[in-house]
Amino acid sequence: MKRLNIILPDDVALALDGIPDKSRFIAQAIREKLKREGRKGLEVLLEEGYRATSREDHELDEEWKDVTLENWR
After folding, report:
1. Model's pTM, two decimal places?
2. How many CB atoms lie within 10 A of CB 26?
3. Contact yes or no for 14/5 (Cβ under 8 A)
């Protein structure tokens, strides 16, 4: 465990008033946020990968289309 002193906006501090174990609540909220951010980063990387291979996929499709059409002639 690590003790931290943090400053929160008044509205956030007020919202925490009714929460019995504030440390646990804040730790859970931070974990969830980090998990979402990690997923978002992964989604961005996957999208970049798909975009990068899009042109190559299209070129391969065109090559196969030509080969397939030759077999039908």
Report:
1. 0.56
2. 16
3. no
**56, 61, 62, 65: CA torsion to nearest 10:** 160
How far apart are the C-alpha atoms of 9 and 28, rounded to whole Å? 19
Contact 54, 60 (CB under 8 A): no
Q: Which of 16, 36, 17, 34 is nearest to 26 (CA)?
A: 16
Q: What is the pLDDT of residues 4-35, one digit of tens each?
A: 898 999 999 999 999 999 999 999 999 999 88
DSSP 20: S
Closest residue by Cα to residue 27 from 48, 60, 3, 50: 3
What per-residue confidence (pLDDT) applies to 11? 95
How far from chain centre, in Å, is Cα 4? 27
